[in-house]
Amino acid sequence: MSGHHHAAIWIDHLEARVFFIGRNATEAFAIHPHDPTRHIHHKANSIGSGHAKENQAYFHDVAQSVADASAVLIMGPANAKIELVKHIHHHDPKLMDRIVGIETVNHPTDGELVDHARRYFRASDRLPHPPPNR
Length: 134
What we know:
The chain is of the alpha/beta class. It has helices at residues 56-65, 80-91, 93-96, 110-123; strands spanning 6-11, 16-21, 26-31, 71-76, 99-104. The protein has one domain: 2-Layer Sandwich (Nucleotidyltransferase, domain 5). The longest helix is centred in the C-terminal third of the chain and has 14 residues, at 110-123.
Protein backbone atom coordinates (compact mmCIF):
# COMPACT_ATOMS: atom_id res chain seq x y z
CA MET A 1 0.00 0.00 0.00
CA SER A 2 1.64 3.22 -1.07
CA GLY A 3 2.00 5.91 1.55
CA HIS A 4 1.77 3.49 4.46
CA HIS A 5 5.16 2.57 5.81
CA HIS A 6 4.14 1.01 9.12
CA ALA A 7 2.79 -2.52 9.31
CA ALA A 8 1.38 -4.56 12.14
CA ILE A 9 0.91 -8.32 11.97
CA TRP A 10 -1.21 -10.41 14.31
CA ILE A 11 -0.48 -14.07 13.67
CA ASP A 12 -1.39 -17.53 14.88
CA HIS A 13 -1.18 -20.86 13.03
CA LEU A 14 -4.60 -20.41 11.39
CA GLU A 15 -4.53 -16.77 10.28
CA ALA A 16 -2.38 -13.69 9.92
CA ARG A 17 -4.06 -10.30 10.01
CA VAL A 18 -1.91 -7.64 8.37
CA PHE A 19 -2.49 -3.92 8.88
CA PHE A 20 -0.82 -1.08 7.01
CA ILE A 21 -1.12 1.98 9.19
CA GLY A 22 -0.80 5.49 7.84
CA ARG A 23 -1.36 8.91 9.30
CA ASN A 24 -5.07 8.96 8.49
CA ALA A 25 -5.92 5.58 6.99
CA THR A 26 -5.50 1.88 7.57
CA GLU A 27 -5.61 -1.02 5.15
CA ALA A 28 -6.16 -4.54 6.47
CA PHE A 29 -6.27 -8.03 5.02
CA ALA A 30 -5.93 -11.62 6.16
CA ILE A 31 -3.61 -14.39 5.05
CA HIS A 32 -4.46 -18.04 5.69
CA PRO A 33 -2.13 -21.03 5.34
CA HIS A 34 -2.84 -23.25 2.35
CA ASP A 35 -2.68 -26.31 4.57
CA PRO A 36 -3.42 -25.23 8.17
CA THR A 37 -1.88 -27.34 10.89
CA ARG A 38 -4.15 -29.14 13.24
CA HIS A 39 -3.52 -29.64 16.92
CA ILE A 40 -1.45 -32.80 17.33
CA HIS A 41 -1.52 -34.81 20.53
CA HIS A 42 1.61 -36.66 21.52
CA LYS A 43 0.95 -40.25 22.50
CA ALA A 44 3.02 -42.11 25.04
CA ASN A 45 5.64 -44.47 23.61
CA SER A 46 5.44 -42.91 20.13
CA ILE A 47 8.22 -41.52 18.01
CA GLY A 48 8.33 -37.80 17.32
CA SER A 49 7.73 -34.65 19.29
CA GLY A 50 3.99 -34.41 18.72
CA HIS A 51 4.45 -30.93 17.21
CA ALA A 52 3.40 -29.97 13.70
CA LYS A 53 6.13 -28.73 11.37
CA GLU A 54 6.27 -24.99 10.74
CA ASN A 55 4.40 -23.92 7.62
CA GLN A 56 7.18 -22.13 5.75
CA ALA A 57 5.00 -21.18 2.76
CA TYR A 58 2.56 -19.46 5.12
CA PHE A 59 5.34 -17.54 6.89
CA HIS A 60 6.81 -16.60 3.50
CA ASP A 61 3.45 -15.16 2.36
CA VAL A 62 3.13 -13.14 5.57
CA ALA A 63 6.70 -11.82 5.36
CA GLN A 64 6.28 -10.85 1.70
CA SER A 65 3.09 -8.95 2.52
CA VAL A 66 5.11 -6.43 4.59
CA ALA A 67 8.29 -6.43 2.50
CA ASP A 68 7.90 -2.73 1.64
CA ALA A 69 7.12 -1.54 5.18
CA SER A 70 9.70 0.58 6.97
CA ALA A 71 8.61 -0.59 10.44
CA VAL A 72 6.88 -3.83 11.40
CA LEU A 73 5.26 -4.78 14.70
CA ILE A 74 4.56 -8.52 15.11
CA MET A 75 1.91 -9.67 17.58
CA GLY A 76 0.18 -12.92 18.44
CA PRO A 77 -0.96 -15.19 21.26
CA ALA A 78 1.57 -18.02 21.08
CA ASN A 79 4.52 -19.41 19.11
CA ALA A 80 3.56 -18.42 15.56
CA LYS A 81 4.96 -14.90 16.01
CA ILE A 82 8.36 -16.33 17.04
CA GLU A 83 8.29 -18.86 14.20
CA LEU A 84 7.59 -15.99 11.77
CA VAL A 85 10.58 -14.06 13.10
CA LYS A 86 12.79 -17.16 12.74
CA HIS A 87 11.58 -17.57 9.17
CA ILE A 88 12.35 -13.92 8.38
CA HIS A 89 15.77 -14.22 10.03
CA HIS A 90 16.68 -17.19 7.80
CA HIS A 91 14.96 -16.24 4.54
CA ASP A 92 14.72 -12.43 4.47
CA PRO A 93 17.36 -10.99 6.81
CA LYS A 94 16.95 -7.45 5.41
CA LEU A 95 13.42 -7.40 6.83
CA MET A 96 14.79 -8.19 10.32
CA ASP A 97 16.12 -4.63 10.60
CA ARG A 98 12.58 -3.29 10.20
CA ILE A 99 10.97 -5.40 12.93
CA VAL A 100 10.52 -2.90 15.74
CA GLY A 101 8.70 -5.12 18.21
CA ILE A 102 7.33 -8.56 19.02
CA GLU A 103 4.48 -8.67 21.51
CA THR A 104 2.22 -11.28 23.02
CA VAL A 105 -1.35 -10.21 22.33
CA ASN A 106 -4.24 -12.65 22.75
CA HIS A 107 -7.25 -12.30 20.42
CA PRO A 108 -8.17 -8.60 20.11
CA THR A 109 -10.52 -7.09 17.55
CA ASP A 110 -9.07 -5.44 14.47
CA GLY A 111 -9.81 -2.02 15.97
CA GLU A 112 -7.95 -2.91 19.17
CA LEU A 113 -4.97 -4.14 17.14
CA VAL A 114 -4.82 -0.96 15.09
CA ASP A 115 -5.12 1.22 18.21
CA HIS A 116 -2.35 -0.77 19.92
CA ALA A 117 -0.09 -0.51 16.86
CA ARG A 118 -0.68 3.24 16.51
CA ARG A 119 0.22 3.77 20.18
CA TYR A 120 3.30 1.56 19.76
CA PHE A 121 4.55 3.41 16.68
CA ARG A 122 3.86 6.83 18.23
CA ALA A 123 5.66 5.89 21.45
CA SER A 124 8.71 4.94 19.46
CA ASP A 125 8.41 8.14 17.36
CA ARG A 126 7.87 6.09 14.25
CA LEU A 127 4.43 7.40 13.28
CA PRO A 128 3.71 11.12 13.30
CA HIS A 129 0.58 12.43 15.01
CA PRO A 130 -2.24 13.38 12.65
CA PRO A 131 -2.56 17.11 11.99
CA PRO A 132 -4.94 18.92 14.38
CA ASN A 133 -8.48 19.58 13.17
CA ARG A 134 -9.07 23.20 12.30
